[in-house]
Amino acid sequence: MNKTILNPLVVKGILERANQLRPDSQALWGKMTVTEMLSHCNLAHQAILKAPKATEKATLKQRFVKIYFFYFKREFPRFAKGPTRFDMRGKVDAQLFEEEKSRFFEIVKKFAYMENQMEGVHPRLGPLNHKYWGRFVWRHLDHHLRQFGV
């Protein structure tokens, strides 16, 4: 099954899971705190929503990685490294939990009722169309919610 964040019912499910997060939620893997994870997701997803349209074609390597990720891999690898600009470890005060959680909800809700098409470039997967971005964002959110046991 290929879930997508573009489906309002899927967004509802993600938000129900995220609502279970608490300031003291502990990661089952990785080094981020729950507040850092929320901030990481907020930055990454805001960037996806604002990404300019891709102007370059995917490299051969990006095409193979994209096929593997979307058609053979069932979930994000546990210790996958993202772009350093989204690495929030040690950069977010735990006191900002409620603020980051509220922002998380606002950003995730935007995906369900988008007026424009996402067509940006992913650093490892290359250019993605709207459909693939919807699947990617769902997997990213699912990965981090599972990381914190929800």
Relevant terms:
single chain; 150 residues; mainly alpha; two-stranded antiparallel sheet; 50% helix; globular
Task: Present the secondary structure layout.
Elements: H1 8-18, H2 34-50, H3 60-72, H4 97-112, E1 121-122, E2 126-127, H5 130-147
Antiparallel strand pairs: 1-2
- The order of strands across the largest sheet is 1-2
Radius of gyration: 15 Å
Percentage of residues in strands: under 5%
Strand segment tally: 2
Helix and strand run: HHHHEEH
Sheet/helix structural class: mainly alpha
The overall pLDDT average reads: 93
Q: What would you note in describing this structure?
A:
- The chain is mostly helical.
- It has one domain.
- It is 50% helix and 3% strand.
- It contains five helices and two strands.
- The chain has helices at residues 8-18, 34-50, 60-72, 97-112, 130-147, and strands spanning 121-122, 126-127.
- A two-stranded antiparallel ribbon has the order 1-2.
- A hairpin with a 3-residue loop joins β1 (121-122) and β2.
- The longest helix is centred in the C-terminal third of the chain and has 18 residues, at 130-147.
- 25% of the residues are buried.
- The model has no long low-confidence stretch (mean pLDDT 93).
